[in-house]
Specification:
Layout: H1 4-30, H2 37-59, H3 77-106, H4 111-133, E1 148-151, E2 154-156, H5 158-180, H6 182-192, H7 194-199, H8 204-229, H9 236-239, H10 241-251, H11 256-277, H12 282-296
Antiparallel strand pairs: 1-2
C-alpha cells in the first residue's frame, strides 16, 4: 500500500471537518442534531455554480461560466468570487430555515420534534434543488489535471493543494473568531449554559443567528471543495452526513478543533480502508468509528462531560 491515501484522507478529512464545525456548533448551542446540514453543503455548491455562471455572463459570453483558470488550478476568479457570495447565501438559507421552522419549534422545548423536522427540511431542500437544477451531476471544470509526484508513491494535483490550503486558512480563521472575538466568547457561554448566559447579558438570539450563518457558510465551503475535486450532485451532502456527525462526536460536541481533528481521523480512516478492505466498505468506517466513540468515550476527544 502506498502513502497516496494520506493525501486523499487529508483532503476528505478537511472537507468533513469544515462541515462538522457547523454540526458541532448547532448541536452545542441549539441542543439538537440538524440533519438538514448536509443539504447546506449541496446548496452551497450549486449556489456557487449559479453565481459563477452569472459572473461569467456579465463578463462576456466568451469568458464562459467559470472564467479562465488561475495558474495551474482548474478554476478561475469567478469561482473564487462566487464562492464568497455563495457562502453568504448559504448562511442566509440556514438562517431563513431557522426563522420559518426551527425557531417556532424551539419555543416548545422538544428536541425530538426539531430533529424530525430537520429530516423533513432535508428532504424538502433536496427535492427543491433537484427540481431547480435537475439530478444530473455538474462540474466546476472538466479539465484533467496532471498530478505532481511528491515521492514515496504520493501524487497530488494543484486543485488538491489549493483545497488543503483554503481548508487550513478557514479552520484557523474560525478558531480565532471563536476564541478571540466577543461573538465567539458568547457562543461558548451559550453552549455552556444558555440561561446563565442570558442572565449575564449575552444576546442569545444574536448568538443563534451567528451560529446558523457560520454553519451554513462553512458547509458551503465544504460543498465547493467537494465539487471542485469530484463533482456536484444532489446527494453529495446527504452522503457526507454520517461522516460529519461521526467527526463532530469523535472530536467532542462543542469543540471546533475537535471537529476538525475528528474530520481528519474519519477522512484518513476512510481513505486507508479502500486499499485494505475495498472501496465498498468505505462508508462503514464512519459508522464504526461513531459506535466505537459512543461506547468508549461518549464525550469525544475534546468534549466536556455535562
Amino acid at each position: 500500500m502506498t502513502l497516496q491515501f494520506l493525501v486523499d484522507g487529508l483532503l476528505m478529512g478537511g472537507l468533513i471537518g469544515l462541515g462538522a464545525i457547523g454540526v458541532t456548533l448547532t448541536y452545542s448551542i441549539l441542543r439538537f442534531a440538524n440533519f438538514a446540514h448536509g443539504e447546506f453543503i449541496t446548496w452551497g455548491a450549486y449556489a456557487t455554480l449559479a453565481v459563477a455562471g452569472a459572473i461569467g455572463w456579465m463578463g462576456g459570453q466568451h469568458l464562459g461560466a467559470l472564467g479562465a483558470p488561475l495558474g495551474p488550478f482548474s478554476v478561475g476568479w469567478p469561482i473564487l468570487a462566487a464562492g464568497l457570495v455563495a457562502m453568504a447565501l448559504t448562511g442566509l438559507l440556514a438562517l431563513a430555515l431557522d426563522l420559518v421552522l426551527f425557531r417556532l419549534l424551539r419555543a416548545r422545548g422538544n428536541a425530538i420534534i426539531m430533529v424530525m423536522a430537520s429530516f423533513g427540511a432535508s428532504m424538502a431542500l433536496r427535492s427543491l434543488l433537484e427540481f431547480v437544477f435537475t439530478s444530473e451531476p455538474k462540474y466546476f471544470s472538466r479539465d484533467i489535471q496532471i498530478a505532481i509526484p511528491l515521492g514515496l508513491g504520493v501524487r497530488v494535483t494543484p486543485d488538491q493543494m489549493l483545497m488543503l490550503g483554503l481548508t487550513a486558512a478557514l479552520v484557523v480563521a474560525v478558531h480565532l473568531i471563536v476564541t478571540l472575538t466577543t461573538i465567539g466568547r458568547s457562543m461558548q457561554a451559550v453552549a455552556e449554559n444558555p440561561e446563565l448566559a442570558r442572565v449575564t447579558g449575552v444576546n442569545v438570539e444574536s448568538v443563534i443567528r451567528a451560529t446558523w450563518l457560520a454553519g451554513g457558510a462553512l458547509a458551503c465551503a465544504a460543498g465547493i471543495m467537494s465539487g471542485i475535486t469530484v463533482q456536484v450532485r444532489p446527494f453529495m451532502g446527504f452522503d457526507l452526513l454520517l461522516p460529519l456527525f461521526a467527526a463532530a462526536i469523535l472530536g467532542g460536541i462543542g469543540s471546533v478543533p475537535g471537529a476538525v481533528i475528528g474530520g481528519l481521523i474519519v477522512g484518513l480512516s476512510e481513505a486507508a480502508a479502500v486499499p485494505l478492505v475495498g472501496g465498498g466498505f468505505r462508508a462503514a468506517v464512519a459508522f464504526l468509528l461513531l459506535i466505537a466513540v459512543l461506547l468508549v468515550k461518549p464525550t469525544g476527544l475534546f468534549g466536556a462531560r455535562e
